[in-house]
Q: What sequence folds into this?
């Protein structure tokens, strides 16, 4: 039960994803170092915590630095997002639940020309996050195959709308 909303404008991406898992389980995937590697990358410095900062290696030493701006356990999480060759952007998460389903809303702002690439990347990361929350993490080597698939689907969708 994954993607339920995909919105974009010139520089903002918003994705809503529903997961058959408790809010605490999904929150753990967003914040605990042992789970970050299953869906985002390897935490190499710091912690995803209130007022904290952290660095995640996304593979081959390509590292993203972040500073936590908002941290409300099992509700909201916001942090800066900075790769060495990109401008600083902002990633925000909000969680809500109904019955046994957690709805995760991701907002990534400040993207401008990076929007399409991040759209496809976040769709893959959220697929990996959901698999982790369900207890069946996907192998990292599947990331770029899925990314290519989402990019092709999105390109076809763009072509049909023009």
A:
């Amino acid at each position: 039960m994954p993607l339920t909303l995909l919105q974009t404008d010139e520089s903002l991406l918003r994705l809503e994803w529903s997961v058959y898992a408790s809010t605490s389980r999904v929150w753990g995937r967003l914040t605990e170092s042992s789970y970050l590697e299953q869906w985002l990358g390897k935490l190499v410095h710091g912690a995803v915590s209130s007022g904290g900062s952290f660095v995640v290696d996304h593979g081959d030493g390509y590292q993203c630095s972040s500073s936590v701006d908002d941290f409300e356990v099992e509700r909201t999480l916001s942090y800066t997002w900075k790769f060495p060759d990109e401008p600083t952007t902002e990633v925000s998460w909000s969680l809500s639940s109904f019955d046994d389903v957690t709805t995760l809303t991701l907002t990534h702002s400040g993207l401008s020309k990076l929007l399409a690439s991040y759209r496809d990347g976040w769709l893959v990361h959220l697929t990996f996050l959901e698999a982790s929350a369900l207890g069946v993490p996907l192998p990292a080597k599947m990331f770029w195959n899925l990314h290519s698939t989402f990019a092709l689907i999105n390109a076809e969708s763009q072509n049909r709308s023009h």
About this structure: The two ends are 29 Å apart (CA to CA). The helical segments are 23-31, 33-39, 115-133, 143-161. Strands lie at 3-8, 12-19, 42-46, 53-57, 63-72, 76-81, 89-98, 101-109.
